[in-house]
Amino acid sequence: MNEQNDEMLKETMKHYYDLFKHITTLNTGAIVILASFFTQIKSNTVNHWILNVSVIMLALSLLVCILGMYSVTTEMKSRSDGIPFAPKFNVLNRYTTPLFKLCLSSFFMGMLFLILFIMQV
């Protein structure tokens, strides 16, 4: 039973890592696109603050995703030495899930402000 729980928790951590990785890719793509057009967009508009908030939220999401991938990686590394997973897997509950929620919510907020900015242009 413990081996089955360990395998299930390992798979859960792998899925969290993949989710962080995919959101990091989306954040990076959005920031690169904004950066390439930033001077042209910013000089022609009045509401600069909406674009700035969008970039800040996307950057926050990117940083939180990197922190989440680091926490998952360090936990998996510490458990690969033969140490069994804790019964309630405290790292998943204490760090990974809140990091994922913050990462996803700041990504959606950044995209929302970007859409608001595009609608006003």
Describe the structure.
By secondary structure, the protein is mostly helical. It has one domain (2-120). The chain is 87% helix and 0% strand. It is elongated, with a radius of gyration of 18 Å. The model has no long low-confidence stretch (mean pLDDT 82).
Give the key terms:
3 helices; 87% helix; 121 residues; mainly alpha
Strand content: under 5%
Rg over CA atoms: 18 Å
Task: Tally the helices.
Answer: 3
- Number of DSSP-assigned strands: 0
Seen as an oligomer or otherwise, the chain set is single chain
Whole-number count of domains: 1
**Distance between the terminal alpha carbons, to the nearest Å?**
58 Å
Helix content range of the residues, please?
over 70%
The secondary-structure element order is: HHH
Task: Characterize the main sheet.
Answer: none
**What is the mean predicted local confidence, pLDDT?**
82
Shape: elongated
Secondary structure class reads mainly alpha
Uncertain runs: none
Topology:
Layout: H1 2-43, H2 48-79, H3 90-120
What's this entry about, in short?
The protein has helices at about 1-45, 50-80, 90-120. It has about 120 residues and is mostly helical.
